[in-house]
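Predict structure. Chain length: 181.
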Amino acid sequence: IYSNALGFLGGVSWAILVARICQVYPNATASTLVIKFFKVYNMWVWPVPIELKSPENYCFNLPVWDPRINPSDRRHLMPIITPVYPQQNTAFNVSRSTFAVMMEEIQRGYAITEDVQKKKADWSKLFETPDFLQKYQYVLSCPKMKLWIVLHRIHSDVWHFIKYVCNCYFLIYICIYFEPP
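Prediction complete.
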């Protein structure tokens, strides 16, 4: 799940999430970091922000992410704050539906890593390709680009489906997945 433009997390957001786990567990092995990643973010109380360091104000009069001052910052569902001035939320585009999708996948990752720890599953289970056709109602495929576009919970009527896709008025969310090479 990757696309800041579509309301999911982008590379900077994912990097900050991983960096925070590495900060909290500096001597952990790689496998422990993966397990902790899913455990911590499965239990995280959003919208408590993820911050790598305390925000600083350098008085350059630049806008910074601060829900105490900026009312719009209070509406952010998944604040992941940059560690440098001016601090900004890298996940400001996250919507309720994309948040739900990401949390579902984090919960799935947590369940798998728990099974790995209990020797009920292998690490490869974490990297299995999802079955889009069973999980999502609508899937558009572009084989030349090795791209799958998953449209979730739009409408069962094909006419409305096409209307929604073309006009993009009522899309709840769009997930873009690239097939591995």
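Summary: Strands lie at 50-51, 80-81, 138-142, 147-152, 173-178.
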